[in-house]
Design brief:
The protein has about 270 residues and is of the alpha/beta class. The protein has a single domain, classed as 3-Layer(aba) Sandwich (UDP-N-acetylmuramoyl-L-alanine:D-glutamate ligase), CATH 3.40.1190. It is about 35% helix and about 25% strand. The chain is built from eight helices and nine strands. α1 links the parallel β1 and β2. It binds pyridoxal-5'-phosphate. Pyridoxal-5'-phosphate binds next to β1, β2 and α7.
Length: about 270
């Protein structure tokens, strides 16, 4: 008899183009040796040019998917992505309370193309209901600003950004500095400067540095990173080790990002 691989659940939206959302999550989970499962919150009509349409699922459908997975199969880590509305954010936060597994919250707000993936009216529910149940929250700098009002434009600002997010109650926060202005100087393999992130629980600080690849095909980066953290946690890693491994995974996926359609292509999971 085969032993089941570690069990990871994504609660997120579908990207019809296959680059972000649950499609990126499931590819990441498979690549990292785990069994990926999905609770779909929304369906997007999406390609390399942006989001052409988005439809959220009824709360009842989200609850039913979650119960089906948890009641029979079980989960060893959960990741949340696009949650679309205040109603869905609150329902998912309620389901995750007492799930008994680490929860990675990617507080998805707006896509790289500027398409809204979360209603403005849902921000307060993310702050007061979802972030408190997070083991790790993984905001980028735009999401930090939306959630806390703190605008971080330089590496020195990341600590202040982290403190502001920790104020809402996640156990750890990973501030993704990928949107900071890049440094100059290109290495032989095409990397330019560094992508710097800060992981902290308010006591320990872990600064993560990786080569910054000058590749515009980065669709799905955030989904991939958060899913990789969840996969590593499901395998039994502690948070700092899980995040370090996830950062390495996403750096490889960005370096291998490829052209698809006529816009922004996805990160690659087969590198
Ligand atoms: N579409 C869906 C369903 C997503 O969940 C996300 C990100 O979480 C995106 C699109 C945006 O991806 P990106 O900003 O990497 O282009």
């Amino acid at each position: 008899m085969q032993i089941s691989p570690p069990l990871v659940l994504t609660v997120a939206g579908s990207d019809s183009g296959g680059g972000a959302g649950i499609q990126a999550d499931l590819k990441t989970m498979l690549a990292l040796g785990t069994h990926g499962m999905s609770v779909l919150t929304a369906v997007t009509a999406q390609n390399s040019l942006g989001v052409q349409g988005a439809w959220e699922l009824p709360v009842e459908a989200v609850r039913a998917q979650f119960r089906s997975v948890v009641d029979d199969i079980g989960v060893q880590a959960v990741k949340t992505g696009m949650l679309a509305s205040a109603e869905l954010v609150e329902a998912v936060a309620g389901l995750l309370t007492g799930v008994g597994a680490p929860v990675v919250v990617d507080p998805v707000g707006v896509s790289k193309h500027g398409d809204p993936l979360l209603a403005a009216s849902a921000l307060d529910s993310v702050r007061t209901k979802l972030l408190p149940v997070a083991t790790v929250a993984t905001p980028n700098l735009d999401e930090v600003e939306q959630l806390t009002g703190v605008r971080a434009g330089r590496e020195e600002d990341l600590r202040r950004a982290a403190e502001a997010v920790l104020g809402f109650g996640p156990r750890w926060v990973l501030i993704k500095g990928g949107h900071l202005p890049g440094e100059t100087g290109t290495t032989a393999d095409g990397a330019r400067g560094e992508a710097v992130d800060l992981l902290t629980d308010g006591r320990e600080e872990h600064w993560l540095r990786a080569p910054r690849y000058d590749n515009r095909h980065t669709h799905g980066t955030g989904c991939t990173l958060a899913s990789a953290v969840a996969a590593e946690l499901a395998k039994g890693a502690e948070v700092p080790e899980a995040v370090a491994a996830a950062k390495e995974y996403v750096t490889g996926a960005i370096a291998a990002g490829f052209r698809l359609g006529s816009g922004i292509g996805p990160v690659d999971h087969g590198w």
